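dumping these here so i dont lose them again. two proteins, back to back, each one seq then structure tokens. dont judge the mess
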Amino acid sequence: MKIFDAHCDVLSKLLENPGLDFVRGRDGLDVTLERMLQSGIGVQSFAVYLPERWRGEFKYVLESVDLFHERVLKEPQMRFIRTKSDLSRASNEGWIGALLTLEGVDSLHGNMAYLRILYQLGVRTVGITWNRANWAADGVLEPRNGGFTSAGKELVRECNRLGLIMDVSHLSETGFWELIEAAAKPVVASHSNATRISPRPRNLTDAQIGSVIQTGGVIGITFVPPFVSAEEPVTMDKILLHIDHVCALGGRRHIGFGSDFDGIGQWIVGLEHAGHYDRLVNLLLKHYREEDVELFVYRNWFRFYMEHLPD
């Protein structure tokens, strides 16, 4: 069964540690080509995420894009996904599709030319913030819980014009509701869980989940252990609680996965890297119909991007 994962931080690790081996790098990388092939990943989103010391420097965004081309796309099994046609061909011809996303717009400094450059380079999904505030909006851990600045609202308008998909993971709750009102396309939460199951600020309330569902977006259940459960150790069966909850809110066709592999320092027992994804699939098949498991692990994200990528 093919898998579509909507978020990993491989590029950030490669930026900080150029010696890591994307193909077989078992020490230091959760997501490698070998592990994606092992578990059946059909599409992987690669986030451009800058460590804090470089967060305001656009040149490191460009270096991350270069790493994406030089270290990921150069592998013959990988195909760059920029359009609906790219995604369809990768799926039909058995390649691993690679989407390019931006996690946090800090380095753009309100310059819409930088945003347009990234679109031209193939970025198709934009996360507005990380946890703290930036020039565009407040992150989810900013105590004042502010929304978008004037410059941030201009960013949203330009994303709408370009057709960029916007990601609410890490965005403040006030910012979330402002974006729901302003976004021309449905928004996604690439790597967020349900607050009702694990009450963490990074997770989504029932109202937020319901809004993403009603507007046609997708929620990527993430594997960050504290976001899954407060109990330790966190085991894979705890992920089912989030799936059940989103389904109960009407989200059967709006659930996906966004592992956050390579962005985490602790792991769910039995799900320590991308090569173990098939273990999760096998667990899901014990609890859900096969057609629903296919929706959760691949088809919901696939359908969303087939609807909202450019032609």
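---- next one ----
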Amino acid sequence: MYQLLLDSSNIYLSVGLARDGKVVDKIYYEAWQRQSEMMVTEVDNILKRNSLTKNDLDAVVVGIGPGSYTGVRIGVTIAKTIAYALKIKIYAKSSLSLLKDVQNPTICVFNARSGRSYFAVYEGKKTLVKDCVKTNEEVLAYINEHKDYKVCGDTYQLGLESSKFDIIQNLAEFDESELVKNVFELNPVYLKDLGK
């Protein structure tokens, strides 16, 4: 069986297929403010080009935020609808965790607007700093104190170049701690509403 991998929390549209933790196909491109138009079509496209139907899926893995308010809702709503309709498992992952480099400590950032960034730090499977919102000055200070860490994500607002990351591969590496027991209780994560 296959797992459908979805994330639309930021500027990229990410749709993938995995089998036993290995990505077998992916669709990934910039689709800022067009995810709602494109995601369902791309789910159909990836299944067709792999000669699969939705009945070949046994789980959906989705990035639940933080990120773009509308983008996060799109991915989560589509994932919940598919999981509920097919009666399959759904796994939820932090969208910031999808930016990490599993080989190195990684500072993960998305632009939260108004001079702020969604921010988290990961090392392998460990979370060093939980998902939060920081001012860009605080993020730059943290980066300056951890020069040996990779910095991944939307870094243009920080005046930095991002290291490479693989959202779809990180979606494929889910575990049972990320299983959502009740699909109706899965909600997007909007850190902006909580402040810093």
